[in-house]
Amino acid sequence: MQRGTHEHVIVSDRRSGQRMPMNDLAAMRLATVEDDPRFRHSLALLLRNLPGFVVVASHASAAPLLAAARKARELGMPMPWDLVITDLGLPEISGVELTRELKTLFPQLRVIVLSVFEDPINVLAAICAGADGYLLKGVTSDEMIAKLEQIRQGQSPLSTALAGTLMRLVRESHKNAFSNASLPRDLGLSARQLDVLRGLVDGLSYREIGERHDIATDTVRNHIRQIYSTLQVHNVAEAVSYALRHGLA
Question: Is the N end or the C end of the chain the one with fewer CB atoms within 10 Å?
Answer without folding.
Answer: N
